[in-house]
Amino acid sequence: MTDTKRVLLAAPRGYCAGVDRAVVAVEKALEHYGAPVYVRKEIVHNKHVVATLSERGAVFVDETDQVPEGARVVFSAHGVSPAVKASAAERNLDTIDATCPLVTKVHKEAVRFARDDFDILLIGHEGHEEVEGTAGEAPDHVQVVNSPDAVDDVVVRDPEKVVWISQTTLSVDETMETVRRLRKKFPTLQDPPSDDICYATQNRQVAVKKLAPDCDLVIVVGSANSSNSVRLVEVALEAGARTSYRIDRAAEIDEAWFDGVRTVGVTSGASVPEILVDDVLRYLADRGYDTVEEVRTATEDLMFSLPRELRTDLKAAGTAPQQGGRRSLSVDPI
What we know:
Rossmann fold; 334 residues; Cobalt-precorrin-4 Transmethylase, domain 1; metal-binding; four-stranded parallel sheet; 3 domains; 4-hydroxy-3-methylbut-2-enyl diphosphate reductase; 35% helix; iron; 10 helices; alpha/beta
C-alpha cells in the first residue's frame, strides 16, 4: 500500500441523463410559469436538490390531492401509475411528466406482458416510488420480488407464462442472483426484451468495483432514500473496500473513519450534483488527501429531451433550450 494519502475518484458518478432531465424540467417550469410549481414526491432522491428547488418555489407534495385544483404539477423521475395520472386529470391539473424514459420503458413492458396475460415478477424494493408506479400499470399481474430470498414465496398461476422485469436502480449482481433463483424455480421464465437496470446504475457500480479493492475507505455521496446510492455502498464492500459509508454531504463525514486510511474512494449516486462531491474532495484535501486519481470505466453522453408538455410551451414562447452542453437535452423519451 502506498504511503501517500490519495483519493480514487470514480467516473462515471453523479447525475444521469434521467435525473438531469427531471431537475432541469422543474427549473425551466419555475422560470417559465413562475412559482409555485408543485412536484409529486421528490423530483429525484437527493436532499440538496429538493431543498434547492424548494427555495426557488417548487412545492413538494405526497399526492395529487394536495395540489390546488387547476394548478401545475410535475411527476418525478421515478414515474407514476395510471391511477395517479387519472387523479390528476380529475382535479384538472396541468401535468409535466418528468418520468425517466428508461423507467417509462419498464412501464411499457409491464403493460405489454399483462396484455399477454403473463405473471410479471417485478424485482425491486416494495414501497419504492418507481416500483409502485410500475406495478400500478398492471396490478393484477405484477408481484414484487424484494430479494433473492423472497423467491421461495413466489406463487404464479401458470409456470409456463412467467416473465421478470426490474426496478432500474438495483444492484446488478443481486438482481442476477434473484433471476437465477427464479429460473431454477420456473425454468421457462422469460427475460425482458432488454436490460431494465439503467446504464447509469450499472456504470457507477462497475466504477466502484474497479477502485474498491485499492481503498481502505469508500465514501458514497447520496441520500438514504436513493436506491442506487445505497447499492454503491454494498458494491464497494463486496468488491473489497475495508469500509464504506454513505453521506448526504461533507459535514456528515466522521473523522474516526480515517484511522489508518491511506486510500479513499469517492463516488456519488445518480441523483447527486457534482457540487456535493467537490465539497467532499475539499474536506479530504484539507486532511492531507490532496492527490486525486480518477478511475474511469465508461464515458456517458446520453441526453434526453425535456418533457413534451414543457417543451411545447417553451417553444411557443420562443425560450426552448439551445443545443449544446449539459443542458442540451436532445433525445426524445422512449
